[in-house]
Design brief:
alpha+beta, 14-stranded mixed β-sheet
């Protein structure tokens, strides 16, 4: 969280929050959604301005209710999540592949999940900023925590993941594992409708 954002919150603590105008899509892109877009259930316009994307990513946080938001100065802009609070890419490196979110934060994976549509989700610990409603006049309400969360794997990386995975078909379901840096991690089924409650996030925050 930027220092200037914290200072603006201290100076103007009661600015009304904004809902529905910003979304995170399935490819980790931030999208602007004006009233027409919201009323017609359209995806919105991808934000391509690099500095603005970086500003949103630096000031991306969640509250204890599981609502994710962008702290735009003194105003809290709650985010509509198309799939999950995080979108993750597999980034090849000189020595090993990394898992990085849309905010360029690393994930330490502990498992993976596959839903009814073949989407892959990475489960693991992510360093994230959490807002706790203690006292809006202080700077101690934002804390960085290592929390278990879930991230949708970008569809461009599904083939890479399939090369790491071993599936075992079972009656009415399947199980399996995948290899990550020499460790065999579980790969389990899940229904997409279960994700939000299991990982404590709100896909469409509202006032």
């Amino acid at each position: 969280m930027d220092d200037q954002v914290i200072r603006s919150l201290t100076k103007w603590p009661n600015v009304p929050a904004c809902y529905g105008w910003l979304a995170l899509d399935r490819r980790g892109q931030w999208r602007m959604r004006d009233e027409f877009v919201q009323q017609n259930n359209l995806p919105g316009t991808v934000i391509v301005h690099q500095a603005l994307n970086e500003f949103i990513s630096r000031n991306y946080a969640c509250d204890t209710e599981g609502r994710y938001f962008f702290q735009n100065g003194p105003q809290r802009v709650f985010i509509t999540l198309d799939a999950a609070p995080w979108i993750v890419r597999m980034i090849p490196g000189d020595q090993e592949t990394k898992l990085l979110t849309q905010c360029q934060s690393p994930i330490e994976p502990s498992a993976a999940l596959s839903d009814e549509n073949g989407n892959i989700y990475i489960v693991g610990k992510i360093s994230q900023v959490v807002y706790e409603n203690v006292n809006q006049a202080t700077q101690t309400t934002f804390n960085t925590q290592e929390k278990e969360s879930v991230a949708l794997l970008h569809d461009h990386d599904l083939e890479i993941f399939s090369e790491l995975a071993t599936l075992k078909e079972e009656a009415c379901s399947f199980g399996g594992s995948w290899n990550w840096h020499g460790k065999q991690l579980p790969l389990d089924p899940i229904h997409s409708s279960e994700l939000a409650s299991r990982f404590h996030y709100v896909a469409k925050p509202s006032a």
